[in-house]
Amino acid sequence: MQIQSVRRHLLLIFLIFAPFLRAFSATPDIVELQSNATELFSSLMNALPLNAVQGLSWSDAYIGQIFSVRPHFGVGVSSGFAVADKDLLNKFFGSFGTSTGDEQFWTLPTELIEVRLGGILIPFDLGVKFGMFDDNKLDKWLFSHNYTKKFMMYGGDIRIALSKGTGAFPKISLGFGYTHFTGSLTAGLPGQHDFDVAGKTLSADDAQLELDWTITTLDLKLQLSKTLFIFTPYLGVGANFYWTDTGYTLRSSTLTYSGSDLAADLASLGLEKIIFDATSFSSRFGNQAILARVFGGFSLNMWLIKLDFSVFCGLTDYRYGGNVGVRFQL
Fold first, then answer.
1. Which domains does the chain have, with CATH numbers?
2. Measured CA distances, 73 to 19, 67, 153, 307, 329 (Å)
3. Cα-Cα-Cα-Cα dihedral sign, residues 287, 293, 299, 305
4. C-alpha to C-alpha distance for 170 and 276, rounded to whole angstroms
């Protein structure tokens, strides 16, 4: 009787905890994966417009004309970042059995070369920027597995002086800009990764997971600045109209499916956005919108060398970023 009583208790305990054990050991669900991806890329698409305004963050609202008593031009380098939600990145990578660390945010850094020339005849100046990064040696900085970061950004702006800053008045300019920014993060995922698709299993061996993005922006900004001794503080407001295309791709040496019709099973789950072939599956996300922002900062002026420090914040969900730069300027 005692043995039967123990068995009944063990059976009761098993029935209570069985759902939790199944949840713990269950194969990751493709629906949950896509839901996590949707959240992640919705967040990323809100951060990318702030990254696209990186560069050409010079403190002077207007640098002067190229042909004058002293020609006005400058060249420099800068590095900046905008933040995105790290918990959404962790949720997405958790679907693949990996993590990205405990930090609250992750950043999208950019490094740029910049040139600005004063205008001719009428008071305006022109700026151009370019940056490119391609490195596969940045091990375990963001992911628990090796990853590769790539990006390219180019663009420019024209600023028309509304005030040249004579006397006590600040310099005021109205600027129009264009930026194209594309990049990717690729993480290695060794071993086998399985995903549940309507009760069937999709398996990938020794995979690589790539997150990629492309954004194009048209920018409008109003900036005020005033030099005070060796400092030039400035403030501004801006808005950029942008188009984004983002997504993920899982590439595998071998992609197998236990069912007979993966397309039909994905469609039955409402996952028509997932595209697949013999060795990969992927999904794309995109939008277009307008983002308003405020920005400001200052430069430390040491004769012909100027050190720039700037911050900016979006007015939609209050994402923020920053930029530092050094330039030679006449």
1. 28-329 (2.40.128)
2. 68, 10, 22, 16, 6
3. positive
4. 57
Q: Which residues contact 268 (CB under 8 A, 6 or more apart)?
A: 198
CA 118 to chain centre: 32
How high is the pLDDT of residue 8? 54
Gyration radius (Cα) of the chain, Å: 26
Q: Which two tokens stand for residue 216?
A: 């194009």
List Cα–Cα distances, 15 to 2, 21, 30, 304, in angstroms: 20, 10, 27, 76
The Cα 104–Cα 221 span in angstroms is 30
Angle (CA) 268-272-277 rounded to 5° is 110
Q: What is the pLDDT of residue 139?
A: 43
**CA 189 to CA 84: how far, in whole Å?**
22
**Integer CA distances (angstroms), 45 to 29, 38, 86, 155, 213, in order:** 24, 10, 14, 19, 9
Contact 202, 262 (CB under 8 A): yes
Q: Letter for the amino acid at 223?
A: Q
Phi, psi of 232 (to 5 degrees): -130, 95
Asked if residue 101 has pLDDT above 70, the reply is: no
pLDDT of residue 69: 67
* Cβ-proximal residues to 52 (8 Å cutoff; 6+ apart), any chain: 153, 155, 179, 181, 215, 217, 219, 240, 242
What is the tens place of the pLDDT at every residue in 37-67?
999 999 888 889 988 988 999 999 999 988 8
Segment 193-243, tens digit of pLDDT? 889 998 999 998 888 889 999 999 999 999 999 999 999 999 999 999 999
Torsional sign, CA 151, 156, 162, 167: positive
